[in-house]
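Justification of computing resources. Each target in the renewal requires a structure prediction run like the one illustrated here; the chain below, 123 residues long, is used simply to show the kind of job we budget for.
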Amino acid sequence: AETKKILDKNIKVTATCVRVPVFVGHSESINIEFEEFLDEHEARDILRESPGIMVIDKREDGGYITPIECVGDYATYISRIRQDSTIDNGINLWCVSDNLRKGAALNAVQIAELLGSRHLKKG
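Resulting structure tokens:
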């Protein structure tokens, strides 16, 4: 419901919440379907260039980040980027962040800064 409120009321989203024994952190397995094909390597490159995103995506045991490893950091970590073979033009990825650092409060400040900078540029 939150995604629909934030992005678009018509967006198709399915989510699963899993409670795991960690003190801090959010984790999400994300499946995205695009209008056009996006290669996983291109998606990885785009994410690496995105502000606030750290890509940790090695094709080996332990080559992805867990909620425990992101504690105390402001970044959002993306791992396990791969094609989703169950849908057309799909990408799967794993996302974790410290919800106390990169949670509602910091996001609100960052959104306010972004809106402020856009408004100041127009004026």
